[in-house]
Amino acid sequence: xxxxxxxxxxxSAADVVDAVDQAMHAAEPHHVAGWxxxxxxxxxxxxxxxxxxxxxxxxxxxxxxxxxxxxxxxxGGVLGLLPFYDVHHLMxxxxxxxxxxxxxxxxWGVIAIILGSSLFVDITSKSGLFTWIAIKLTKASxxxxxxxxxxxxxxxxxxxxxxxxxTAMIIVGSLSAVSLGxxxxxxxxxxxxxxxxxxxxxxxxxxxxxxxxxxxxxxxAGISFMTxxxxxxxxxxxxxxxxxxxxxxxxxxxxxxxxADKAEAALQVAAFDENDGIESRFFFWFGGTxxxxxxxxxxxxxVPGWFLNELGMGFVALAFAAVMLIRYKATxxxxxxxxxxxxxxxxxxxxxxxxxxxxxxxxxxIGNLLKPIIAMGDTAGPGTLLASSAAASSVTDNIPLSAMLxxxxxxxxxxxxxxxxxxxxxxxxxxxxxxxxxxxGSASTLVAVTxxxxxxxxxSFMGFxxxxxxxxxxxxxxxxxYVLLFL
Length: 487
Fold this sequence. Notes:
By secondary structure, this protein is mainly alpha-helical. It has 3 domains: 104 residues, no CATH class; 84 residues, no CATH class; 250 residues, no CATH class. It is 70% helix and 2% strand. A 3-stranded mixed beta sheet has the order 1-2-3. β2 and β3 form a beta hairpin. The N terminus is likely disordered.
């Protein structure tokens, strides 16, 4: 048992986190009864099943996982799994700090990154910058369907890297419906929307902050922003080109052939006005400048020895959000209302559940199941883990999957201390790309299907799977080859 107080001469926030983390791990039980582990494993499976059936249950993610967090904490207390009293009090630099057991269980760095990035992007989008880019590319295509597919595909990937995937899909998907309608090519809309939906998850691989699994696994592995980008970018480029090429072939999206058709299409897209969404020219340029600075500063936040490295990417995201809020200082509350509080609540509760599962030795047992895969070495092992992660992500939420696997790998002596291990990348690629197999695999593919139905296009669940599997299979095979040969 630990003493009731832990004294720490804390000089930085990192010292506090390290103190709490060490105390939490020191308090972990050495032995847990098999039936207790089985009970909590059942709760974990039940929670994942409920997340997969979220729409049928008519319940938000935060409510589902929050309920399981409450149950897990109560059972953990009753069964003596959690150090409720041992880690409740900390002495930080001579001051007593009380922390309920579920507070240090939450990865506040991840919460800060998501909160700050969401706020920053939402405010920046009000400048009209992203709509301006989209319409400019539409005009550049001169209305040629094949060029539109290329431009919209690349735009989807780029937007997914800096926006959240759902927002990227809404912007590009809505513009696709309008553009193809005006061009008299509405019969090609299904192909466009499917390709764009699949590319949102490819674009989600581009940077450390492009998707939630990236943030979770990247933080656990200690992968810096620039390292992530340099290693992921070549694959994203290849996968994007392959997906667009396959989309053009499968959905018969070709070039305009006659001069009359080309002239008419160019005239139609020329009527689009990219300045419609710009309320203030100053804020438009300010938003663009801040976006470039945001990417540059958050990339440099991982440079060792710099003060931003101590403060972390979460601080950078929150700081930029605060600066952007100055533009709407009198109406800032509307941006707070628009935040995805369900996602943030879901994350906080999920971290609590995962922490209890760790104390109940559930993660230890899952880690034992993964040992044969890790024992395969850096050849067959990462490929097997990537394919398994993709399959699991296709039918359930990839966030708890990523959180669990990241926690397990971090505890593995052969992988945890090695940020260059291909096993980390196997989870990242698998969790992101698995969402392309089914329409419920990711939020962005679900939005794509929603836009499809909104435009009165017929596509069933199995119809989506039938159309998407060749693309997803090609992307996953490319990812396995890339991870095994180049990472």
